[in-house]
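Quick one from the shared queue. A colleague (R.T.) flagged BTB/POZ domain-containing protein as missing a structural entry in our internal table.

Convert sequence to structure tokens.
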Amino acid sequence: MECLTYVEKCRTEYIWTIDKFSTYLEFYNNLETPVSITSGKFLTEMNNEMIEWNFELQFNEIKSEYKDWISIYLFRLSPGEKKFNALFHLGILNSKKDELNFGNATRGEFTDDSLGYGKDKFLEKDMLIKNTKELLPNDCLTIICNLVTFDEPVTISRFVKIKKPIYNQFIDYKRLFDDPAFSDVTFVVGDKELKAHKAILLARSPKFASMVAGRILDNAEKNHVHITDINVNVMEALLKFIYTNEVDNIDGMVDDLLALADKYKIKDLKEICEETLYLSINDENSAKLLTIADRYHCDDLKEKTINYINKNGLDVLATDEFEVMEKNYPHLITEMYQTLFIQRSWN
């Protein structure tokens, strides 16, 4: 008998920017009754059910014990019978786009009629007034929330007759990669030869499979394939990943490796390259990353990069790379504006 307890969870990041925030500090301070600002609605998904949320930022009345603070609360808006637990961490983005966390994570049990959960003492008003340049860049307060929702735990039991041994085929594949004694195809890149096995290539890459099916690798030159448009280090990294599912030290070649992963339809490697590129994003290279994402059909990288550019618009617009993109890829400018319009309509 085997028993398993598990929970369904969903992780979401939500960013709320409030423009001209000093106006709220000035007019909503020292009021007899509390005043609140409500964020736009946003969605999370649990077990194929869409859950609607929003935040409420509250300037407390002068008689309240929280009169010197700005409070924040998370509310579940969508009706439903199911109960969800949520854990969320709140912070703000400063002038350098760094996330500043205020306090510990908050946990709440949400039903459709539950009260909001949050922090009574989220931001001290005097702290914002004294640090306006750092905490309210361009007179904007940007709140960031990392929200994790949990379903109720589920426990299942089952009979287990045979315990299967753990097997990792890449351990065996790596032995083949390190010892090319039984290789049956050779890639010639410059003056270097890289040995490989057709069966492994077939199993790992649909593109290689079609090449073999077309007898491209089965020519009269003893199964030698000449590669002229790729650096040998990039080709070697590609083959190593095919055999071992591992890739190392790709920062200097990630653009070329992404192109090769896209060409040979190696999805896992392509996702690693996308993540590596996004970790390097900044104002200077974001426009170039967007053109790369578009060229190699990297939907996730494209979406994240468009969001970055829209968030840092003026700084990115001033770069040479953005000018190149605007001239040669006008459809990307259109997509950026469409995304920005949709995001603002939600808020």
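The longest helix spans residues 330-346.
DSSP finds 14 helices and 15 strands in the chain.
Added to the table.
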